[in-house]
Known about the structure:
Layout: E1 15-20, E2 30-33, E3 39-41, E4 44-45, E5 48-49, E6 53-56, E7 61-68, E8 73-79, E9 85-92, E10 98-100, E11 104-107, E12 113-120, E13 125-131, E14 137-145, E15 152-155, E16 159-160, E17 171-179, E18 184-191, E19 197-206, E20 209-212, E21 216-219, E22 224-232, E23 237-244, E24 248-257, E25 260-262, E26 268-272, E27 274-282, E28 287-294, E29 300-309, E30 314-317, E31 321-324, E32 333-338, E33 343-350, E34 353-361, E35 369-371, E36 375-376, E37 384-390, E38 395-401, E39 407-413, E40 416-417, E41 424-428, E42 437-442, E43 458-461, E44 467-468, E45 472-474, E46 482-488, E47 496-501, E48 507-512, E49 517-523, E50 532-539, E51 547-552, E52 558-563, E53 568-574, E54 583-590, E55 598-603, E56 609-614, E57 619-625, E58 634-641, E59 649-654, E60 660-665, E61 670-676, E62 685-693, E63 701-706, E64 712-717, E65 722-727, E66 730-732, E67 748-750
Antiparallel strand pairs: 1-42, 2-3, 2-41, 4-40, 5-39, 6-39, 7-8, 8-9, 9-10, 9-11, 12-13, 13-14, 14-15, 14-16, 17-18, 18-19, 19-20, 19-21, 22-23, 23-24, 24-25, 24-26, 27-28, 28-29, 29-30, 29-31, 32-33, 33-34, 34-35, 34-36, 37-38, 38-39, 41-42, 43-44, 43-67, 45-66, 46-65, 47-48, 48-49, 49-50, ...
Amino acid sequence: MSNLTELLPAGGGGKNVNFVASGTITSGKPVILNSAGTVTEVSGSSVLNGTASNFLSANGAYSAVAYDTTRNQGLVVYRDNNAAIKGRIITVDSSNNITYGTETTIHTASNTSDTTAVFDSTHLRYVVMFRDQNTYGQARTLTPSGTGSNATFTVGNASYFPVSASNNIRATFLDSCFDPDTGQVIVAFADTSNSNHFYISVGKDSFGVVQWGTAVAVDTNGACSSFSVTYDTTANKVLALWELDGTSGKAVVGTVTTGTIGSFGTVVNYTSNPYRPGAAYNVDNNCFLILFRNDAGSNYLNAIGAKVDGSDNSVVFGTTVVITSEYSESYPQGVTYSTAIDKFTAAYYLAAGYQYRNFSVSSAATPVVTLETAVTFPSSSDGIYANYYDPDEDAVVFTWRGVGGPWVAQAITPGSTNLSATSFIGIADADIANAASGSVTIKGGINKTVTGLTANQNYYVQNDGTLNTATSAVNYDIANASYTQAFSVSAQVTFPSGVAFNPTGTKMFVVDNTGDDVNEYTLSTGFDVSTASFVDSFSVNAQQAAPMSVAFNTDGTKMYIVGETEDTVAQYALSTGFDVSSASFTQAFSIAAQETEAQGITFNPTGTKMFIVGDTGNDIGEYTLSSGFDVSTASFVDSFSFATQSTQPKEAVFNTSGTEMFMLARDGSIVYKYTLSSGFDVSTASYASVSFDVSAQENSPQGLAFSADGSKMYVCGDSGDDVNQYATTSTATNSTTVLAGRALSSTSINLDYTT
């Protein structure tokens, strides 16, 4: 970016510089500077909060919403204080203010509950579903008419979830979505007359009455609840999520046909003990965002990305992200996708109050969730229940129970922009076509006499024009790692050969090669080994006489052990996630054809790839699993040799994207870094010429692990019988440095008084 080194005198402005455009740029628009030296027009929207208003003045419950894409109107349905199901049409104006249509009764009875609603874009009607006074699953069509305060709807005749030979289905925990490809409604529910097993039914509007097909059993293994069903309009598939027996989060992909749903893929676990998952689909990059409260993880709110493969009805989940390490009083509500900003928005409740935030989910094969800054909800509330996106006004309409009892709606534009604290550069002087060169007026300048600034310090311009010295964190940085502390396991372990953690770092597991067991420790502060205390141990002697390494699936309901003598991967089932006392052996997978002295085991986040480190070939072997975390489906793919760096590799660990791999070598007591051009594909690995020596703490290292975010590294070994903790975070900046008296080029300046 040499064109930025001679811009304009101090305190000035107005210097014109030519840049290459990335994307089309309109004259007079502000632009940002990209890392490649190109410029891009500032895009996105600012926050706009409409006025909160009551749609129900008295206590009610169970609000649900839907959006009419043809009339640019929304619907809110709810149970009033007399347990009647009612609804109103919602219209949002350009200032995000709401106009309610006429309140209309949908169903009058007591003991109604569990409302859900969709818009049928084929028949241009809403379909509302709920549990009626007899606990039957009931549906009504709503035909809208009128506009603004005169908007109303006509209620169709009742229909009941599929009628068996003798009675209607008793339903609870309802959720629904709409399949525009077949013009059918999909409803998920627990059948209370059948042990709360999970069923899905498909219904079609026939002259204002929903005709239901056969109810299909999705999960009959226990009591199911907390349903979420979302339709993938690209793959033309349904993604269903549910909680089984209050212990595990399940997911499956299904194909909708006329009158039914079938062709289910394999049911997979995506987490343990989720409470009320909520999901939305991004049609622009074909991915889902799922939010849930993790009751197995301190009741923290979690987010995870997902992607459906329409060819085989499989689903791939990314790495779970903790939204906030703060106890949540309620479950996340109202996950929606905004086409204007290409982001998801969700609201939730913490001890500090209600918040909403935007989320991005990458389009990678393994989706990655990125969190934006949380925003405090602008109005007092006592439980957010649902929301929908209004693309006509680029607004999210939230509904909630207000403090003291009224039910309220508010339209908010949750602004999001590509503008950052270090990116603004100036204003385009003319239209610039994509990839063409054009003139930009550089804004800003600073004089060296400005007080309060430090010489030879880099400063960065924030969105409000102020200067800040903030830098960004770089994790998995072993080149700059530093030792912090150690935790002794000698009271339980005589030969520590492997170490692993649960995703939150509140549990640590140490393998004892001599004792043939896995030892569980609890940490009162996640990933801080100084807070560890012993809990229990589990013997693996019957399967592995000299165990070396342990790994778990994402929710801790499966455990895997490899060792030096058995030439197998032993798989165990844990009835309680990450509780080794609940483990039982299930199966073994032979690796003898590739490795006879296994030292380490790890998986990619979805369990579709398994990696074995061994001394036989001084390499890491890659296996693919057709069913995630099921070793019986494993097949060998390829291997990568560590022999140039080590003849005693002990463990290998990947970063979350699989683009970096770290190998622990006993010879030399060194951690080596490798880069992979294709994530989790060891055939693309190459040594990065980066290493870290741990011999000062451990001269016979055996096990290696990182914290979930890569900010901490852990090494265990048999010379110290302890787990050593290292800091692996450093800071980095990407801004151009210019001399005092020059313009703020890429919004960064270094004050150099000597020049």
